[in-house]
Design goal:
The complex is a heterodimer.
Chain A lengths: L1 E8 L7 E8 L4 E5 L6 H8 L7 E6 L2 E2 L7 H7 E4 L11 H12 L4 H14 L15 H14 L4 E5 L7 H16 L3 E5 L3 H7 L2 E6 L2 E6 L1 H6 L4 H7 L2 E8 L6 H14 L4 H18 L9 E8 L4 E8 L13 H9 L2 E6 L4 E6 L1
Helix pairs in contact in A: 3-4, 3-5, 4-5, 5-6, 10-11, 11-12
Chain B lengths: L1 H27 L18 E5 L4 H8 L4 E5 L2 H10 L4 E5 H10 L3 E3 L5 E5 L2 E3 L2 H20 L1 H10 L19 E6 L8 E3 L2 E3 L1 H13 L2 E6 L5 H6 L5 E2 L7 H4 L2 E3 L4 E10 L10 H14 L3 H35 L3 H16 L2 H12 L7 H26 L3 H10 L3 H31 L11 H12 L3 H29 L10
Parallel strand pairs in B: 1-2, 1-3, 7-10, 7-11
Antiparallel strand pairs in B: 3-13, 4-13, 5-13, 6-12, 8-9
Classes of the chains: A alpha/beta, B alpha/beta.
């Protein structure tokens, strides 16, 4: 239904979309997730041509909508959009908001448009607000009206641009349940969202976007439970990461120690935990790894999950197999076991991976 | 409740206004700083009134040492000013002085001629003007010989008011139509009586037209605009006690003198101030003089009509034009955008009076266009510059998302603009434009400069006849206030219609 090839969008000082390729089939419900500023909204706005792509092509039902003479109003009729900031027409009442487009563009009679509008309002549970004006409604109600308005044009595709981001947490539920019902009705939908559990439940495909491309494309199970890419995993688990490379011969011990401290403070870790990360670093790297030969650079990642309240410290280094000695008397091993919850070690013949959970 | 408070406030404001002017009136008789002036030298260093654009400007400097000149538009204003003691004296032509003294108490002129002057008709400095001047000169010597000029002189300088009337020629004649311009403030040469221009000069002119088969059209402008009207060939000839000077002769042709006279100094006459009747009596008398006599209220009424006509037409045209400019200002083409910006800059940076004069005397100088049309064009153009910026501000204050939402529904950008963006912008800019329009109505009071007899000009003419400031000015102010107030109410209605919050509409 929609095919996107080599899509690129540049602004004077930023390039949110570098090279996006995707194919969307009829009936797909796709959640687009990813860190902010990675082009999710831009992608959506390019698909319905509120933005003009710099290069690449987007085919909707086989028609290139990036062509100069593309019939944009026709495209828009086929493709509804729901905005983060609702954008209800402030000078019209709720029912007028729903009636204007069908009357002006589909040439429906006033009666038809009214009946159709009221029916849609009923499905979003707001028939009683028909005569009110948008600024008399709560955010959640506005967004439900906006969804109903998009449906008045009977679109085949519905785009949601962060539909719940501007809402109070208490109002997110009502909007999501409306979207969920729509998803079950077989409409093709693209949803940019930050609601992970919603994305997991409602969609049949998930795009993880990062660095201006679709970084990972798969079913919700695949993306949420078994992501292929490290970046996806970190985003799903909402990890905060500090990555450092330690060159064995000449590294700056105080500098690394203070960047650990700074990272910890930024994530609001308790002082005790910050101290432990520093201790692990000192014991493992200073006391053990630096003394070894042939292990090359040491890559250290500190991953902090606020949700799970855990810190993982991952060390990667080369050389021969080298974990912690099982020796009961080894002072370093005793210290490390004392401050961590668990320690695991893997060796694939080339690289050692040592994970310490604190 | 709100309206009641408004009314009370209006009433209070009016009472204060009237009280202030009454104070001004009553104070007038107590001041007389030129009391006992018998010689010109006594006026050295005093405040002296001068009619703007007149030869008295230079003359004042010559005959009164260290004169502090104050500029006035008409002798009527100066007469009032002398009586109120705002100025000590002013220079005036002797025949006019005679008339002022006989009509007005409280002033007199010194028994000393400052200079001997000739007064003549002025013609444009073109071949046509020269030809007309020659035939006029021939006519002057004719009437001097056959004694007609003596008759005319007796009629207009005599005391018999009933004799002072003219039979006018038609507007078109077999030799064509002459356009005459003059200042109605220069009785007995040119002034308004029974709503028509009359006077010594006018009488001579009519006689000329009749004898030579010309039709006649007359217009009444401020003195400062008479010579420009001639140089721009807006008029074929002009007269209103115009003194012949060398400087003027460089830009216009003068006929032979139709009147020889001199200049005298007018001062306040404290002896005459004594004859004072009751306050109410005075008020009644003054009301009669200003409005009832010679049906002067009709002038105010037709002036009011013109003021409203010019305001409404230029308001509507200006709004439409302003919308166009606003669209240009927002369009994609950089050149067009630049043109619109320059247009707005120029219009906002030019005083409307100067712009109007330029339109009338320069741009449409040679064409035979009604001054009302010129005024409408001028004000519309000026108004459009302000309106377009207000509209732009209103349009830009509408959230971009509104337009995007309309586009996403399938509207074209044009439909989206008119259906979604503009109605919401209107709610932002209408209140501002309302204020601007009201000030436009008041701004039209300057159209007298281009010969239109609007409300202000009508009251000026009345003042030039009655030499009173109180009634004509206060009544004019009140009329302007009422127009503005009614317009505010009316525009307020429209605003309410556009604001859904104040005016709930029902669907089905």
């Amino acid at each position: 239904m929609i095919v996107i090839r080599n899509l690129r969008k540049e602004y004077p000082n930023i390039t949110p979309l570098k090279n996006v390729n995707a194919e969307i089939k009829k009936g797909d419900v796709i959640s687009i997730i990813g860190p902010s500023g990675t082009g999710k909204s831009t992608l959506l706005r390019c698909i319905n041509r509120l933005e003009t792509p710099t290069s690449g092509e987007i085919l909707v039902d086989g028609v290139d909508i990036c062509a100069k003479k593309a019939d944009l109003p026709g495209l828009h009729r086929k493709m509804g959009m729901v905005f983060q900031s609702f954008n209800l027409f402030g000078h019209m009442s709720i029912i007028e908001n729903l009636m204007c487009a069908p009357m002006d563009l589909l040439r429906k009679s006033k009666k038809e448009a009214y009946d159709c509008g009221m029916e849609l309002l009923q499905t979003v549970g707001l028939a009683s607000k028909a005569e009110n004006y948008p600024d008399e409604l709560s955010g959640g109600q506005k967004q439900r009206v906006a969804i109903a308005r998009a449906l008045t044009m009977e679109p085949e595709i519905l785009l949601f641009d962060e539909p719940t981001s501007a809402l109070d947490p208490t109002m997110v539920g009502e909007v999501l349940s409306v979207i969920k019902r729509l998803a079950d009705s077989g409409l093709t939908m693209l949803i940019v969202t930050h609601e992970m559990s919603f994305a997991k439940n409602v969609s049949n495909r998930v795009f993880y976007m990062d660095e201006g491309i679709i970084y990972e494309d798969g079913t919700p199970q695949q993306i949420f439970e078994n992501p292929k890419n490290e970046k996806t995993r970190r985003f799903i688990r909402q990890l905060k990461v500090l990555s450092l490379v330690i060159n064995k011969s000449d590294f700056d011990f105080p500098a690394i120690n203070s960047s650990l401290e700074e990272f910890g403070r930024k994530q609001m870790m308790p002082q005790r935990r910050i101290y432990r990360t520093q201790l692990v670093f000192e014991e493992l790297v200073m006391q053990r790894l630096v003394c070894e030969k042939d292990i090359g650079e040491i890559h250290m990642d500190v991953e902090y999950s606020e949700k799970e309240d855990s810190v993982d410290m991952i060390f990667r280094y080369g050389g021969k197999k080298l974990g912690l000695p099982d020796d009961e008397d080894d002072l370093t091993a005793i210290t490390l076991r004392g401050v961590t919850k668990s320690i695991s070690h893997k060796y694939d013949g080339k690289e050692n991976v040592l994970v310490l959970k604190i | 409740m709100k309206i009641a408070i408004k009314r009370i406030l209006c009433f209070l404001a009016l009472s204060v206004l009237i009280a202030i002017s009454l104070c001004g009136c009553s104070a007038s008789n107590d001041i007389g700083n030129a009391e006992g002036v018998n010689e010109i030298s006594q006026l050295n260093g005093c405040d002296i009134g001068v009619q703007t654009g007149s030869t008295f400007d230079v003359m004042t400097d010559e005959c009164i040492e260290n004169a502090q000149k104050k500029y006035y538009e008409s002798f009527a204003d100066m007469t009032v000013a002398v009586k109120q003691g705002k100025i000590s004296a002013f220079l005036v032509d002797e025949p006019l002085a005679r008339m002022l003294c006989s009509e007005q108490g409280g002033i007199r002129y010194l028994d000393e001629y400052i200079s001997h002057e000739s007064y003549a008709f002025a013609f444009p400095k073109t071949e046509k003007g020269a030809a007309l001047r020659d035939s006029f000169n021939k006519f002057l010597s004719e009437i001097r010989e056959d004694g007609t000029i003596k008759e005319i002189e007796d009629r207009w300088f005599g005391d018999d008011d009933t004799a002072k009337s003219i039979t006018y020629p038609d507007t078109t004649g077999q030799s064509g139509t002459l356009h005459f311009t003059g200042t109605s403030g220069s009785a007995p040469f040119v002034y308004v009586k029974d709503g028509q221009l009359v006077g010594y000069d006018v009488d001579i002119l009519c006689e000329f037209c009749k004898r030579n088969g010309y039709g006649l059209e007359m217009s009444d402008v401020d003195f400062a605009a008479v010579i420009p009207a001639i140089t721009a060939e807006k008029a074929d000839l002009a007269a209103c006690c115009i003194t012949v000077t060398e400087e003027r002769a460089q830009s216009v042709y003068f006929s032979d003198a139709d009147y020889e006279g001199g200049v005298v100094v007018m001062v306040a006459d404290s002896a005459a101030a004594g004859e004072k009747s009751g306050f109410l009596e005075n008020l009644k008398d003054s009301f009669y003089k200003n409005f009832i006599k010679e049906s002067r209220w009709k002038m105010l009424l037709s002036g009011l009509g013109l003021t409203v006509l010019i305001s409404v037409c230029s308001g509507l045209a200006g709004a439409v034009l302003g919308f166009g400019v606003c669209m240009l200002r927002r369009c994609r083409n950089k050149a067009l955008r630049g043109i619109a910006a320059v247009y707005i800059r120029i219009m906002q940076g030019t005083p409307i009076l100067v712009f109007l004069m330029i339109l009338y005397y320069v741009v449409f100088g040679k064409s035979d266009i009604s001054p009302v049309v010129v005024a409408v064009i001028g004000f519309a153009v000026n108004f459009s510059a302000y309106v377009s910026e207000m509209m732009r501000m209103g349009i830009e204050s509408v959230d971009k998302g509104q337009n995007e939402a309309a586009l996403a529904l399938g509207y074209t950008s044009r439909q989206s603009f008119f259906k979604v963006v503009f109605p919401q912008a209107a709610r932002h800019f209408l209140p501002v434009i309302k204020g601007e329009f009201i000030s436009l109505v008041k701004m039209t009071s300057i159209v007298g400069y281009i010969t239109i007899q609007d409300l202000t000009k009508a009251s000026d003419i009345i003042r030039s006849r009655t030499y009173e400031a109180f009634f004509p000015l206060i009544v004019t102010a009140v009329i302007y206030f009422v127009i503005s107030w009614l317009l505010t109410l009316f525009l307020g209605r429209i605003e309410v219609r556009l604001d859904p919050k104040k005016h709930k509409r029902r669907v089905n």
